[in-house]
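Data deposition worksheet. Section B asks for the primary sequence of the deposited chain exactly as it was used as input, without tags or linkers unless they were present during the calculation. Section C holds the resulting structure in token form. Section D is free text for depositor observations; keep each observation to a single sentence. Incomplete worksheets are returned to the depositor.
Section A, Depositor: J.P.
Section B:
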Amino acid sequence: MVKDTMYKVFIDGGHGTTGLEIGERLLKRDDIQLLEIEERYRKDLAARVEMAGKADVTIMCLPDAASKELAEVLPDDVRVIDTSTAHRVDPGWVYGMAELCPGWREKIRNAARVANPGCHATGFILLARPLVDARLISSKSPLSCFCMTGYSGGGKKMIEDYDRRHKEAAEAVSPSQYALGQCHKHLPEMKIMSGLEKEPVFCPVVGDFYRGMVMTIELPAEMICGYDGTVDSEVVQSSMADSGVVQTPTADPGMVQSSGDIDLTRMDRDCGDNKNDILQIIKDTYRKRYKDEPLIRLADTPEDGFLYSDTMAGSDGFEIMVSGNSDRILLVSRFDNLGKGASGAAVQNLNIMLGTDEWKGLRF
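Section C:
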């Protein structure tokens, strides 16, 4: 049966890791027609612009420079999702994370230019942003995080390198820390979209497994506002009780967040009486923030004490765990770097922009 409405989608750069997976997902759809460009025109800018003009949405799966080159010449009314890093903190583009904060879906729905988030950034922002918005942690906080990722996140070159090493040696490849100079390309979006004033200290690690990711933010209890019995004056204001609204530290100053999500005055009292309650308060903050988000769920820490990085491989879901103790808290997200961290997010954004079922083609 042919659908009454067929949406035309052009994937520019569909031969890379992300582009291939997006294409495979969309080929299974009964409401999507993929527009294909002839091989000889794949690098022809004019031909690509023409193809983008025929599509309802174009998905760019290109290196940063190539994405910028195409975006600069596309007419303003051509709708685009860019999976590269090129436009993620560009004020002329909408950051493609529907769960970022209340009202953000509508920005994506109405946008002509959407920047798909980075995988590491996704794991960090969905952990940090709710706590910054709720004023549980200060926007000035010097956060630290590390992330274990599968090697597919490194693209074709890294995949080929691991495949070669697997053939040459029977033993697994040792996990490798990288971006040692604290210049990882996801850092700008991690800062801005979390509402932070400084970039976190970030240690990414690539492991010998194909796909999957675990992001961990290390949070000393002293960084929790009000934990030591003194609450930042910005947190609990007399005007909050009157208005019920707190201005969020966000890249979009027009957004506001209801303080009804968490009773901040109660937090101070509870932490003073029983500091173990802070773990529950953080969990409650996540639970209330994401209660209407089917892709995001609050999970329990594994009973055996081991957290495996590839558990969510093949899923577009996103797990959040809160563990640690009254002195040192671990905020953990687990997901698929190629799912919610890349192609799954692109399909979600595509669905929102087309006005169709947001969850169509996603894997829960």
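Section D:
The chain has a mean pLDDT of 87.
Residues 132 and 138 are 6 Å apart (CA to CA).
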